[in-house]
Amino acid sequence: MDIEVLAMVNDTVATMMTCGFDDQYCDVGLIIGTGTNACYMEELRHVDLVEGDEGRMCVNTEWGGFGDDGALSDYITEFDQDVDATSINPGKQIFEKMVSGMYLGELVRLVVLKMAKLGQLFDGLVPDALRTKGKITTAHVAAMEEYKNGLKNTRDILVELGLNPSQDDCVAVQHVSTIVSFRSSNLVAAGLAAILTRIKQNRHLRALRITVGVDGTVYKTHPQYGKRLHKVVRRLLPECQVRFVLSDSGSSKGAALVTAVAQRLASRKRQVDETLAPFKLSQEQLQLVKATMRAGLEAGLKNKGPSAVKMLPSYVYHTPDGTERGKYLALDLGGTNFRAMLVKFKKGLQNNTRLYHKIYTVPLEIMQGTGEELFDHLAQYVSDFLDYMGMKKAHLPAGFTFSFPCEQTAIDTGILVSWTKGFKATDCEGHDVVNLLREAIKRRNEYDLDIVAVVNDTVGTMMSCAYEDPQCEVGLIAGTGSNACYMEELKNIEKIRQKKQKTEGDEETPEMCINTEWGGLGDDGSLDDIITPFDAEVDHNSVNSGKQRFEKLTSGMYLGEIVREVLLDLTRGGLLFRGRVTETLKTPGIFQTKYLSQIESDRLALLQVRSILQHLGLNSTCDDSIIVKEVCGAVSRRAAELCGAGMAAVVDKIRENRGLDHLNITVGVDGALYKLHPHFSGVLQETTRVLAPQCNVTFLPSEEGSGKGAALITAVIDKYLYSMRFSDETLLDITQRFRKELVTGLGRDTNTTATLKMLPTFVRSIPDGSEKGDFIALDLGGSNFRILRVKVSHEKKQTVQMESEIYDTPEDIIHGTGARLFDHVAECLGNFMEKHNIKDKKLPVGFTFSFPCQQTKLDEGFLITWTKRFKASGVEGMDVVQLLNKAIKKRGVSADIMAVVNDTVGTMMTCGFDDQRCEVGIIIGTGTNACYMEELRHIDLVEGDEGRMCVNTEWGAFGDDGRLEDIRTEFDREIDRGSLNPGSQLFEKMVSGMYMGELVRLILVKMAREGLLFEGRITPELLTKGKIETKHVSAIEKSKEGLIKAREILNKLGLEPSADDCIAVQHVCAIVSFRSASLVAATLAGILMRLKENKGASRLRTTVGIDGSLYKMHPQYARRLHKTVRRLVPDCDVRFLLSESGSGKGAAMVTAVAYRLAEQSRQIAQILSEFSLTTEQLLEVRKDAAVFVLPICVSQYLDSDNKILILGEAENEDRDPKWPF
Length: 1221
Known about the structure:
Elements: H1 11-22, E1 26-32, E2 36-43, E3 56-60, H2 78-85, H3 94-99, H4 101-117, H5 128-131, H6 138-144, H7 150-160, H8 167-203, E4 208-215, H9 217-221, H10 225-236, E5 240-246, H11 250-276, H12 283-301, E6 312-313, E7 326-333, E8 337-345, E9 353-361, H13 364-367, H14 371-389, E10 396-402, E11 406-410, E12 413-416, H15 433-444, E13 449-455, H16 457-468, E14 472-478, E15 482-489, E16 511-515, H17 533-540, H18 549-554, H19 556-572, H20 594-599, H21 606-615, H22 622-657, E17 663-670, H23 672-676, H24 680-691, E18 695-701, H25 709-721, H26 728-746, E19 759-760, E20 773-780, E21 784-794, E22 798-808, H27 811-814, H28 818-835, E23 843-849, E24 853-857, E25 860-863, H29 880-891, E26 895-901, H30 903-914, E27 918-924, E28 928-935, E29 948-952, H31 970-977, H32 986-991, H33 993-1009, H34 1030-1036, H35 1042-1052, H36 1059-1095, E30 1100-1107, H37 1109-1113, H38 1117-1128, E31 1132-1138, H39 1142-1168, E32 1173-1174, H40 1175-1184, E33 1194-1198, E34 1203-1206
Parallel strand pairs: 1-4, 4-5, 7-10, 10-13, 14-17, 17-18, 20-23, 23-26, 27-30, 30-31
Antiparallel strand pairs: 1-2, 2-3, 6-16, 7-8, 8-9, 11-12, 14-15, 15-16, 19-29, 20-21, 21-22, 24-25, 27-28, 28-29, 32-34, 33-34
Helix pairs in contact: 1-11, 2-4, 4-6, 4-8, 7-8, 8-10, 12-22, 14-15, 17-19, 19-22, 21-22, 22-24, 25-36, 26-36, 28-29, 30-39, 31-33, 33-34, 33-36, 35-36, 36-38
């Protein structure tokens, strides 16, 4: 017997399926019999346990376990407890034990037994049968409640139990049965109402029409149960039209129906798999493709005979070595856009280039006109760019990226073989394109240009990446087209005459970059074994049938069309779209390759699939969406594997050329398919690794690229964001402005008008390593309030142990009264001390209060103004330490607040504990601020001139006086106008995380309105403030998956971005975040210069403690900040130290230092107490030595012991009277 098990379902699901066969509104299954359960059709997007987000799935609730967590404890009776205690699973299936047929009879028996014991039934007679478990069954309950025979049946049942019931006894027992069964139906109705409400909410309906399939002996046999259940459900949900259908055939029919559905799906799955099988290449097939590519490479290098792989010499003999200097012009024609770019190379290899772009659109009539018109246009664009850069009189060397097949005989000549990409300009094919451009420039007679090289985009990509990584000797384009180039040894290139001979002392074999033009592999039939009928159809319908066969299997220009052909075939076979072949599906080019990236962007993005298909006019089901996703995955994976096989052939050839057992090499890559498709790059890399195991290949994406995305990048820079790009000269100018504000803020007479308030913190020292003790830190700076216990010990070395708790600060407290706020803090502190068994200890407390405060001493801070949404009344202008002490005293908590600090100071002190050179603290997160150790002699707001004190700059307000107006953009002004505090904190609004995402959104809105992004489409989401957050900016700027993240984020905004849109958005994010890092670097440079001057040092060595989500989470921010700071202050050795424990630990460190200094002061006072003289002693001395003049100054102030304190020599009279010396 051959049996295949296709489905396994439980009885509840089978009941729903049985009833669903007769009534398609049936979306709920219900069992009320010996046991009870329910199932229903849930939206797949809500079922986190299953992958997928579109369509529905039946969920088996197993609701019998409802109440196992105590949720029903209010409704459980002593009889329920007795039933549960004697069951085989105590504490389990509580709901089931209250409602199901297995327990109803037993519940009735227990109630009747108790009533009999109390003498309320049977004259107090309790026979053994009534004491026996199971003697009253649910069948008895149903019989007792029969409409006409109920009392008679009750008497018969009780007589069987050995009782002689009266008429009243029978009525009472029948009533007990009614109450128990009625409770059961009520509870089931309540559970069912919850399910129906869920379905109604899922469908966003005001009224619901639905059918419930029901089975089970209680429902079927109890004479009243069904009616009661229906009535209660309709009373609980009057807006729902609920039909109850009894499953006549039980659950077996349902299992058969599920099996029938499973069989249909399995059959369809087999047919789909058979269709897609040719796209799934085995390792043997990939090895064969690699061998075919290798043979094609070798044949193309030969002098004689045709070859499908052209292997065109580029006459590029070297990759960059880092010594390149000067200014060069780069011209790029590769599609409908022409790009002009000025590149400045500076000393050093890494990232020492500056690029200035401008883009020009080539009109269609020019692309398809005469060659002279085309190149005259290009010459005009170059003229405009040189004007734009102010370099028209300069004689610049230029490189020409010409992304069309060319035959080269030298690096500065390129004979156009044929036009592609929609170009049809006459009199160009067979001509030298460099010469055509030179002639056009000569006709203008406006500028002089030396075109020294012509390269295609693949070679350009390799050279661009080689400047970043010297091991880059291969270039790969995986985008609209597909191609590769690599450095080949000259001796192997037989098709050119080897002019470059090895010279004396030349240790390297001369090489030349070869443009493989590998897209032609297979034109000779060598790939016929892997070409599917769908590939053949795509080739047949192309403009160059029989040509570029490998490219048609791998490039973005054709993958979408292959998918369309497969979908068309599946639909014709009745496997998709209900067999309906629409005109849309028959339209070539309708399924663009960008849809593959979108469809495969999530684990199972079925909602996205359906949305795309609907956009294409294809109405799909959930099953259709799954199949479309499979088709896209098969086609794109094959493309990536074929590219990987080709790349394995290239790198293995290089390895063998050099006679190496193992090769380390880098491949520079460009192209939207590689960069934007979520899986293409990973599959390509893995295939290369497997097929070329002796090569360690690194793939380096080209940051600039040569595609159309550069057009939008340039448009962004030139039209909108040019003012956000700062030269070092501009940044140093900002540094000087900031330094002037530092001095203004430190002055007593000028502080009131300064934007930098330079608030003294009365923190006079960073930790010196001798601190020890047990401290508490309070950290209030947002919606979460944190308390820490910090133990500093000295056993073998200084160690810190921390315990912490986080408490919520509710909105009503944040916006309530100050008394409520500090009562809440005190209550949390009391709870913390009790939890950690330190309630009876009076520990020193540090208070991190992250709001602007005016301090006159370390343990005093007057709130200047609330920020961060806090609005507690009665606090501004008050001493927050005094308010907190009052609340602590009221609660009876024992605590001694020794210091109040803000989060920036806390960060500096935290890092200072680990590195005693740390004298600067910075926060770059939601907000931004900085503090540093200033010489006390410069702080006019504090008395004294010796030593240092930490100053809280409150630098977020830098520029509030208009000092930064020349660098603010229209987007900054719009941010400010829409903020809670217009005109204030302008620097913070330009750099902090609270505003960065919004800046990006405003730029994108303007670009979209002008048609530069998203084809001019603007969605309500894009127009909504706050929809782009700083965390999105961080995600978009990730090096590997940034463009994929950009697409996902834009999709959530209702947009369908092109590859160019994603590149442009990523560049906008980079410029906005780079500006932030640059501005912070400029202001930090001002502080570092100040420290260096204060110390009179020729070179400063210092550490900056830093914290904040933007610095921590943004993938590029820290690197950019460090690099810019070191460039602006080259005479400073700066270490950046991340604060791992936040500002709370810092508050404890401030307290520890204060405690250490106080202890030192106490010890000094104790030692000097011997020098204190009473008035009587002093008078006695005077009497005994009337002629002796003491060379000391006697204080006129008496202390509490009537002692006069001796202060020291006369020149020390101005010292603080609290200090003996």
